Amino acid sequence: MHLLAMGISELGTFLLAVAAALGAAAAGLGLSPFARTSPRIVALSGAAMTAAFVTVASAFLFLLIAYAETDLSLLNVYLNSHSLKPLAYKLAGSWGNHEGSLLLWLLMLAGFGAAISLSPFGDLPTKRYAIGVQAMLLAAFGLFTVLTSNPFAPYPEAWPTPSDGRGLNPLLQDPGLAIHPPTLYLGYVGLSAVYSFTMAGLLTGRIGSAWAKAVRPYLLFAWSALTLGIGLGAYWAYYELGWGGFWFWDPVENASLMPWLAATALLHCVMVLERRDTLKLWGAALAILAFGASLLGAFLVRSGIVTSVHAFANDPERGVFLLLLSLLFIGAGFVLFALRGSKLQQTARFSPVSREGAIVVNNLLFAVVLFTVFLGTFWPIVMETQTGSRISVGPPYYNAMLAPLALLMAGTLLFGLLVPWKTGGSGQYRRPLLVAAGLSIAGALALTLATGRSALALAGFAAAFLVLAASLLDLLRKGGFGTAEGFKASRLQGVTARSWGALVSHLGLGLVLLGITASTVFQGEVRAVLTPGESTRLGALEIDYISRKQIAGPNYIAEQDLFRVMKNGRLLTELTPSRRYYPAANQATTEVAIERRGLSNLYLASAAGQGLGEARIVRAHSHPLIHVLWGGVLLLAGGGLTAGFAKRRERQRAAAGKLQERPA
Amino acid sequence: MIAAVLLFLAALTPEQAARAERIAKDIRCVVCQNQSVADSEAELAKVMRRIIEERIAAGDNDAEVRGYLVARYGETVLLRPTAEGANIVLWAAPAMVLVLGALWAFSLLRGGAKAAS
């Protein structure tokens, strides 16, 4: 071995091969039917997994260094980087391409594998199989990476010596997009741990309370990362694409939403499973579905089967192979499910009028939403291949289909938070339920009528108010509201981190619904063709086009417009939207100018057009309460993390508390 | 061309202009991604907006305007797919899944209720 004499290309390739081999070894130890389950076997396969993680992490570090130095001896760096790029984007560029993103994928797979190995969750056989399945994922994707998508492939000797790299898609040169894909990936891959535990549970026949406890932290972590990743994607679309929207129900957006929907249903299902030892089959199916949807979400993007602005690292041939590999793992999951599912005993013991009952309904509705999004995403493909006619399924379809479901779900949430676990009890929940539901719907109706808006606005506001009312009532009741003693803030100290997490996430959901509805229903919009010196109006605002100038950035040139925004003759702000041109990539981008005013935005974009001469097309939008949406996303994710990382001691205390409550 | 756009804009009553805007919001800009023709500044989107305005000025109702665009650019321009032919699946299947799922949930909850009592 001439380890020291190796160049970065050989060293990186070597590390990747070692990682795949370690993965295969851990999988063999974990899943071999010939070795008996013993602490030694589990420790050994866990050690192989942890070593694989360290190996992939070193490889990843080497790739980062190669990008930081713009090391053109690597083909990947040559194709995707440029010495003039800011350092942060050089580093982000390392995972902004097919090969590099696969390495990141491997890093996370191995990372979650190491976490499973090192954490105390799961009984011995479950843990053994979980490590085995996770290692198999690592080995399969590792082998694929080394054989077809090696980020350490050398720059071909036969090619002329390069003077510099070939840059990066300038659309990707943006802080939002530098962190958006890895965050989503963290969610996708986090669900691999849930999948591995589920496969293990099916193999051992033990899917129950212990399984639920083992899966929960991974699930909540993955869910939070997915939430944040989707939110970042929407935020990026909002300020980078320049048309004022944040979600278009585009296939790639949907592909990231589907695992989120499955994971959201699953994390509620797991709560029932943990307490009542039921919904096992459903939980296992959802877990496989959630990871399956993640694989689809991650690789559909690059398969060329769908097109989207979010699609990156496009490479149809290898993308399709990745999809097939994914289908293999999903298929294996469902085969195992079919073979072993019947072994799972379940005993449902709860009244329909209970929190469990509400969660069953919630799961049903989530499944219908998931199905609708799936259908809407793939129906155009079915139609095109079967009949040859090309159709679109766009926002109007999803709005019409999902608004009533959202309303039902919000109602179920309010009901579910108010009724106790297991049994409806004496019906104390009824009055607050009716009052809160009545007020929410009446408020939404009044707001819609007063502003003369559509049924869609009514559904959106009603859903938002219901969820917000549910969160508020939940908080009040945690403080003792409705009991003989009444609300006392001091009682909130006894609330577990887990309950806080749920509360914060539900509050976040209510804010997300409110932000989406308000910012779309009440948005103001004006479009005008202006030359410098002219002006237009948006509501009470006067927008004056003052001047235009050329500016030079580090690796682009830009044309920047200056606008003054006036209100009642007073200068409110100056905005400078621009259009950038990146010569290295021969690409142009629009940079919108956004002025935050309280919780709302003034959004200004200007565009050039054929035959316009000195004039520019100016679009201004006002988006009321849009920051409520972004804040809501943060609360959603924050709540998930809070609940996922609740201390174990706290969980035990919660369990003890439950026991004391129960006799009533 | 801009003059022509402005001319037609001027010819529409505010009501008609609002109708044109509403229709444009549900028409896909076929050369852009993720944008309706109301949101896009692509040349084709401008042409399509102008067609919508022309058809409205000529007295077409909303369905006729959409039909005109479909005849010209194909069904892919409709962001709200029709419910005709096989597309009925798209509109009806979620409701069917909801009904089937509700039956499943009902049987599960009833089983739970029995076990609890």
From TrEMBL, chain B:
InterPro entries linked to this entry: C-type_cytochrome_biogenesis, CcmH/CycL/Ccl2/NrfF_N, CcmH/CycL/NrfF/Ccl2_sf
Q: Which domain of life is it from?
A: Bacteria
Report one GO cellular component: plasma membrane
For this chain, one GO molecular function annotation is: metal ion binding
Query: Is Heme there in the keyword field?
Result: yes
One biological process term from GO is: cytochrome complex assembly
Transmembrane ranges, per UniProt, are 88-109
CDD domains recorded? CcmH_N
Q: Keywords for this entry?
A: Cytochrome c-type biogenesis, Heme, Iron, Membrane, Metal-binding, Signal, Transmembrane, Transmembrane helix
Residue span(s) of domain CcmH/CycL/Ccl2/NrfF N-terminal: 13-114
Please report which protein family the annotation says this sequence is part of. Belongs to the CcmH/CycL/Ccl2/NrfF family.
- Cited function: Possible subunit of a heme lyase.
Q: What is this protein called?
A: Cytochrome c-type biogenesis protein
Q: Which organism is it from?
A: Parvularcula maris
